[in-house]
Specification:
It is a single chain. The chain is an alpha+beta fold. The chain has a domain at 28-86: Alpha-Beta Plaits. It contains 3 helices and 5 strands. It has helices at 11-14, 33-37, 66-75, and strands spanning 18-23, 43-44, 50-51, 58-61, 81-86. The chain has a 3-stranded antiparallel beta sheet with strand order 4-1-5. A two-stranded antiparallel sheet has the order 2-3. The chain binds iron/sulfur cluster. Iron/sulfur cluster binds at residues 23, 28-34, 50, 76-78, 80-81. Iron/sulfur cluster binds next to helix 2.
């Protein structure tokens, strides 16, 4: 069995689905690590919680951001992040 490379390209993009980064704010402890790893996607609000302007808790992730998003999901100390397949089209970021 081979180890999965967290930086490998998205398979979901090839299948016509998009990927969203889901934030569980009830689990988040406002460490801010995810915003440091994904500055093009996330900003911190005044209390240190991540947010993306114009989006709720599911933020579209472009193909170029997927590797960093996977790293953020794996490193979140509260396991408050998850990647989800969505029916929406991916962003062009
Ligand atoms: S890394 Fe996890 S706990 Fe820290 S701000 Fe981001 S979502 Fe919240």
């Amino acid at each position: 069995m081979t180890a999965r490379n967290p930086l490998s390209p998205s398979r979901t993009a090839a299948s016509g689905t998009a990927t969203a980064l889901h934030i569980d704010w009830t689990a988040c402890a406002a460490h801010g690590l995810c915003a440091e790893l994904l500055p093009e996607l996330l900003q911190l609000d005044e209390w240190g919680y991540p947010r993306a302007l114009g989006y709720g808790s599911d933020i579209p992730v472009g193909p170029g951001e997927l590797g960093a998003a996977r790293v953020a999901v794996n490193l979140c100390p509260r396991q408050a992040l998850a990647l989800r397949a969505t029916a929406a089209t991916p962003t062009t970021r």
